[in-house]
Design goal:
The protein is 61% helix and 10% strand. The protein has five helices and five strands, in the order H-H-H-H-H-E-E-E-E-E. The structure holds zinc ion (ZN).
């Protein structure tokens, strides 16, 4: 079976975006019991550490849940390391913004992947949106140089 690089990137990006949404949901649920999250500021240092630990826990729980189901083990370890690093640095703001940044970054990759096309002439996959237009609605294929429209058809 032939799977294009573009569709593979897109599939991963969608899965990661879903994990980002799960992070956001977990954070919103926690926010109901921990109103300080909404303010992004905890003055009492002891309470701040407590809130940081609570956020890190719910995010790490999400990672555990999706590990092996949509999130490869090596990627899961990477995400865990980022969360634990924020926790160790007692970075409340970093932890609060992490789910949103994570989801946004991957959503952006889905949009980028949507701009990947496969040249109908030479079957090369390339980022259509990242290349200059050489004719109305067409860019040059980086491999064969043919003018290719947004669907990948050599025109
Ligand atoms: Zn081509």
């Amino acid at each position: 079976m032939y799977i294009s690089i573009a569709s593979l990137i897109r599939k991963i990006a969608i899965e990661m975006t879903n994990i980002g949404e799960a992070f956001i949901k977990a954070m919103k649920d926690l926010e109901k019991n921990v109103p300080e999250i909404k303010h992004g500021l905890v003055k009492d240092p002891a309470r701040k550490s407590e809130v940081v630990d609570m956020i890190a826990k719910v995010l790490l729980d999400v990672v555990q849940k999706v590990k092996g189901h949509g999130l490869a083990a090596d990627k899961a370890a990477e995400v865990e390391a980022v969360i634990k690093n924020l926790q160790n640095r007692n970075d409340l703001k970093g932890l609060i913004s992490y789910p949103f940044n994570f989801a946004m970054a991957w959503k952006h990759k889905v949009i980028q992947a949507d701009m990947m096309v496969i040249c109908s002439n030479c079957k090369t996959s390339f980022d259509w949106g990242g290349r200059p237009e050489i004719a109305m609605g067409a860019v040059a294929c980086p491999k064969c140089g043919k003018a290719v429209d947004q669907k990948g058809n050599a025109v």
